[in-house]
């Protein structure tokens, strides 16, 4: 697991075949800013030489906070370290727990919307407009149908984009059934099950795991884990769980400043970020990130590392507080 303390960017600009070529790459380190810069320069030189030789690579890495799914370490502010676990603040301001070997499984009831929200609403609205206009034999009927369906689809899409639950009980039932089948097939596993605002969270207590272990891949597939999360676990070599509320669920609609919430932040912009974080943390005090439901399987099996992470997780998420989920 790599969650670096220091970040830097390298840049090389040289003539190749009579044309100017500029390549940038990030570097990271837990030792010092100088070590991070040396790593960035090394990665930049390697990328430059490969691009100059004709290999098709991006000339610049995108600066994103949570890009562990793409093979670059998670670029987030480190809040604290507890043993091998690291608590970071993600790009929208929530605290997240990152652990190298304690298995977390997050299961969303509905698949989050990852594409364009506008297109998600536009396609059914266009169909409704055509059908409505044909049925009413007037363009006005089609226009009314278009706007009604667009508004409804846009609202649904916005909730899916934010990972908010729907009122349909069927996805929750299916998710619970998947967990039940897994426990039936793996009776020697000890699992703690939590309710999140949009799904279930499962924590394995009986053992520790490598994120690249085939057993983990099977677990993710059987339980229906989000594919981006599964890919992040493999590339970043860690498991991850959100510890605090999503801002928009606790009345904070303004994004964390400065946008897009990527760490580190220049000193002159830290006051704005700190002010936002202070307001967020105060609002988050009245909410829990998840609620503990039950333990299933072989509850007599307990790995000490998993127990330590579970205690940290339950305390920081307020899993036993009875507070509203957010």
Summarize the structure in words.
The chain has helices spanning 33-52, 117-136, 139-161, 170-185, 214-223, 227-236, 270-284, 304-317, and strands at residues 6-16, 19-29, 77-82, 85-89, 95-99, 104-108, 190-196, 199-204, 239-242, 291-297. It is of the alpha+beta class. The protein has 3 domains: 6-61, no CATH class; 77-110 and 168-317, no CATH class; 117-161, no CATH class. The strands form 3 sheets. Strands 3-4-5-9 form a 4-stranded antiparallel β-sheet, with helices on both faces. A hairpin with a 2-residue loop joins strand 1 and strand 2.
Largest sheet: 4 strands, antiparallel
Helix-strand topology string: EEHEEEEHHHEEHHEHEH
**Major β-sheet strand ordering:** 3-4-5-9
The radius of gyration computed from the alpha-carbon positions, rounded to a whole number of angstroms, is 23 Å
Percent range for β-strand residues: 15-25%
Globally, the shape reads: globular
List the uncertain runs: none
Helix content: 25-40%
Structurally, the number of domains stands at 3
Say how many strands there are: 10
How many DSSP helices? 8
Quickly give the structural class.
alpha+beta
Q: Give the rounded overall mean pLDDT.
A: 89
Q: N-to-C terminal Cα separation, in Å? A: 27 Å
